[in-house]
Amino acid sequence: MVDTKASDDDILIIPVSNLSVSLFLQFPLPSALITTAPPLRKYFDTDPLPEDTSYLNYFCTQPLPQLAVLHQLLEGVQHARLDGSWSIVYAHANINQSFPFWILTFWRQAYTLLDIQNKWRQAEAFLTKHQSNPVASTFHLALSRLSWSGSTKGFCDWSPIHDLADFASQKWLTNKWLKDGTQTFHSAISTPSFQHPKNQLLIKATSLLAAIYLWAQMSRKKFSKTKKTHGLMRS
User: What are phi and psi for residue 84, nearest 5 degrees?
Assistant: First the structure.
């Protein structure tokens, strides 16, 4: 089986999990702007790997291959190894340096990290734009303490932390967050410690909000189904 996992040196090329969002945004990652797509055979090399690890310096400075090409490389690496390949080269960047097979895993993870970085960059830009708002200012400050990796806590599911970036935009007005927020809030106020006469109106209001949400969902589905039916009748 071909080794496509990074060694212990990977801490030099990928961010540690407890890095704050603010520092994560500063972490250097390779770009994904490459447009060339050379034949797959040019990526596989028969030269052995160098004895030192100086090749790690290339990882964050050289571009990633196209995502479609990367998927094909991951599918073909086993076969290439059987055909005598010992390493990978940056065929899309004309670099003849030999790299270990686990660079494919790094490239795949780098794409994921770039997506998360982009999501938080948009959130940071939104918070900066609304810096005069106390809530936005507090959220922006929290980015220096919030870890970029992990799962959210307190919601109905265990979404990745980077989903919280939606709250620094208009994206929180989506079905997912409205549903999770309503259910979480209703669960919290329904606990015995919250059962006080003065809170009954709030509980009823939350229940009503949940009912409105479900009604809106059902109405949307009914409208969508009716629209499709009319479309078929017209055709």
Answer: 110, 5
